[in-house]
Specification:
Layout lengths: L4 H24 L5 H31 L11 H31 L5 H6 L9 H36 L15
This protein binds protoporphyrin IX containing FE.
């Protein structure tokens, strides 16, 4: 038995967004090409704002729709590792999304889509807060990337080597009809 259709769609939407936001963030923080940097900043901030909404929906869905059971034959230590790493991924996504938002808003910068919609900033202008959020954002990315690599590694192990049905709990993205 696998995850329901909504859980799968929310999961794969998150994958697409996060796996484009990470390279965009890394390049924009490093490049000296101003035109490219501007485009990536606009993409990263606005997609990040959408991701905050997506994460809120996803976490609410996850809390009210428990994960299907893992195979009985799976060792207890592996089940525990899966639980810890899934929790870490959710936590790190929230930390990245919130610190990114705070870095931008406390720094007094625009988030074009929210500004166009008339959504006000939820944090006050505060340079010290913006700097703290910036350093949290830049540090937490390493831990997030570590857990993403671990997660993809574990999914590939189950899908390609063990073939124990764990991979198909979340694949295909919209579930089977
Ligand atoms: C899960 C969500 C997010 C991920 C995975 C992510 C990832 C990243 C990464 C990898 C960097 C490069 C950091 C560096 O190398 O120093 C970065 C930078 C940045 N991100 Fe995000 N980000 C996320 C959400 C957001 C959000 C929601 C916003 C704002 C609305 C945002 C705004 C920024 C800004 C402004 C920078 C440049 C930091 C600076 O140097 O001032 N991010 N992000």
């Amino acid at each position: 038995m696998g995850y329901d259709r909504i859980s799968r769609i929310l999961h794969w939407l998150t994958v697409v967004i996060v796996l484009t936001m990470i390279p965009a963030g890394l390049i924009m923080a490093d490049t000296e090409n101003r035109a490219l940097q501007d485009i990536l900043f606009i993409f990263h901030k606005n997609t990040g704002a959408l991701l905050i909404v997506l994460l809120a929906i996803r976490l609410s869905w996850r809390v009210t729709h428990p994960a299907p059971p893992l195979p009985a034959a799976m060792p207890a230590a592996q089940k525990a590792a899966a639980k810890v790493s899934h929790f870490a991924l959710y936590l790190l996504l929230v930390v990245m999304a919130v610190s990114g938002y705070v870095r931008v808003r406390a720094g007094g910068f625009p988030i074009e889509m929210l500004d166009a919609l008339g959504v006000p900033s939820f944090v006050p202008r505060d340079e010290a807060l913006a700097e703290r959020a910036k350093s949290i954002h830049a540090t937490a990315k390493f831990t997030l990337i570590f857990f993403i690599v671990l997660h993809i590694g574990a999914a590939s192990y189950h899908g390609l080597i063990r073939r124990d049905g764990v991979f198909s709990r979340m694949w295909p993205p919209a579930g089977r009809a």
